[in-house]
Specification:
With about 90 residues, the chain is α+β, with helices and mostly antiparallel strands. It is built from 2 helices and 4 strands, in the order E-E-H-E-E-H. A hairpin with a 2-residue loop joins strand 1 and strand 2.
């Protein structure tokens, strides 16, 4: 089983590509590092993988769940601690 599967992942802001065609496969139980220089798009990819933002194009599945179709199902199954706090408008106390 693939824990993470991303295909042709793109994210652009005002016509500027932050992520340009990434493919990523992470097998169940595998540990991986995500390295690159400042501005390479690492944080943007992590935000897409954790459903905080949607890709401009491409497909992502986490635990074999499509992030575009079932983001809340994924959020119930993963845990993320970001370096800097971010406000998520879809979260509530209910």
């Amino acid at each position: 089983m693939k824990s993470i599967l991303a295909r042709s992942l793109f994210k652009s802001y005002d016509g500027i590509n932050a992520v340009d065609g990434i493919d990523l496969d992470v097998d169940e139980g595998q540990i991986f590092g995500f390295l690159g220089p400042n501005g390479a798009g690492k944080s943007t990819v992590i935000k897409m993988l954790t459903t905080l933002i949607q890709p401009t194009s491409g497909k992502i599945s986490v635990l074999e769940i499509d992030t575009a179709k079932e983001p809340l199902s994924i959020r119930k199954k993963i845990g993320v601690v970001l370096q800097q706090p971010s406000y998520e408008p879809t979260l509530s106390v209910e």
